[in-house]
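Appendix B. Raw example, untouched.
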Amino acid sequence: MKYKSGISLVLVAILSAAGGVIAYRSYTKPSPIEVSSPVAENIVVVRTPGGWLELATVKVDETFDGQVPHEILGMSFDPTITRIRVPAFYTYRIRLAAEWKILEKGKEFVVIAPRLEPSLPVAVDLSKMEKYASGTWSLFTGTEALESTERQITDRLAAKALSPMYVDMQRREARQTLAEFVKRWLMEQSKWQDMKGLPLRVLFADEPIQRLGPDLVPLN
């Protein structure tokens, strides 16, 4: 009986302290933070051999949930629950220096561009990031739990960017941009002047090219 009373008193003290902190934050107005950023000492510029052509960007308000279980003296307590929301921007591109296939199929001009690749790491808008922590112990464990959740965001965003669902989500828009590029830059070259009047079809190397059939004539 004394053991249970001791645990109860500890919980009451913890909850009282938590209430005091919440009340303090509710009735005090924080001063704005002045942020500065000095010029970095170590700046490295890396050239992109061959270059990239950006075709489409997908904006998604991503949510990341975490949970930290708690156990004290063999007793289980409510876990600390974390949630982080942040706008993510998935940009997809193709390598300009990679192999491009230019084909003729009947009276159709077919261009097969390199496969779509995401730009990594995925860009996020930190100014709109929202963080929440809840649970009985969140006053003491919430900050660490949120930091742990946030450290996993980069890898999880990269996994989503590489997933077939996200790649296919922007494929139509990417194809339209690619068609504009081909018409403006490729077909204006003297080598392809005779093809300007033909219907244009653009595909990516990661698509099932065999569906075009066997009557393809390479032009490059």
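End of appendix B.
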